[in-house]
Sequence to fold (461 residues):
Amino acid sequence: MSKHYTLKKSVILARIGLGVFACHAAHAVGAPVSFREQIAPILLQQCQSCHGPTEQKGGYRLDTFDFLSRKDDTGDPPLVPGQPEKSDIYSLLVTAEADERMPKKAAPLPKETIDLVRRWIAEGAQFDGGDKTAALVEIIPPRVHDKAPEVYSLPLPVTALAFSPDGSELVASGFRELTVWKPDEGKLLRRIANVAPRTFEIAYTPDGGALAVASGSPGEFGEVRLYEPKTGAMLRQIISAADAVLDVKISADGRWLVTGGADHCLSIFDFATGERRHRLCVHSDAVTAVAISPDSTQVASVALDRAAKVFDIKSGKLVSIYRDHQSPLYGIAFTPDGKQVMTAGYDKSLHQWSIADAKKQRDLVLEGNVLRMQVLGDQIYFGGSGKKISQASIVDLKAGRVLSAVGDWVYALAIHAPTHRLAVGGYDGKITVWNMEDGKQVAQFSAAPGYTESVVATSSP
Fold:
């Protein structure tokens, strides 16, 4: 999968950017330095990769304020409120010893940034982030993301798609944006800004009033935000994470929102209040997909660790574990009766198994790896490296219709049952739309605004 985007985590050492300085400038002149708004973003961008949850050089981590205040390997407190010169967190930024200076293997921080850290400590190193044990990424204010390019010079892989509840619009992932299309024509309707660089999943609320977007920058941060579909306004940020959030689902009754991400965890939120009810870090690698049962009582997850798990959505308790796959998993779905789960990934096999005893009921050998799957009625649709969408009966897992007019790996799949539309997004940046009644292609277009080959082909339904 050398040319394709990998979901495995990679550490990115980010330099201080304009966003941090903008945050500094926005803070009221003469006001005390805010840890949440001004210091935490610096630590997150400059320090956490070497002193975070996955690596603690020198035996020291600072991904929470609680850890930041603890003693290091030498037994000395790294932070002495009111005394910058006695605080390692400051002195290691200004030391003349190149081997000691932080951050390691990077240019010294700008003088304005160092002075800000010094002033915060001199003022007493006050914490204004609420929970001292919360991850820094969870307490900083929502980011204001850079604008998307006005015109795309190259197509970008389409990694997420979602039909509006009435089927009149199709929302697609973009670069730092979402694009909204008229699906049968490939006509760009509008663009939604202030989105993270990569979007991995999009989900409408049942009433169509909001879009939940799972996104991030792998190895750096992740988030789930709610947007108003028509205006593009950000309604609220549901979650901030230390790595990309790879999936988001909303229950059919609108009560629950579930996320899964590269931090190995899935989270269950009360949608109405935004309260996180459970954070389940029960996989040993990235959680690539989640699913909610038709009756909204259970949630299931798959991960790169090859395991599939089912949990009670209210209590968060583990219900079932399935371990018969031999390769990383990327797709999961409940059967319509909610009693079985279907999973697939890189072992070219679709498994259907019982939740009650975690035993395989049947399987289907595939031609390629599966990255996306979705259930509609008694049929399951799936696609991936085979460069096509395949259909199979859930009753007996017998292969059915194949939609093969896809130019590259399938990265996104959306279905709108009332209009009989199925949309696919791929690595080549194209979106293909089919009429599922007759299997005919309705439209195919590039999801890159302004790209010269924007409309590749269209035909009447």
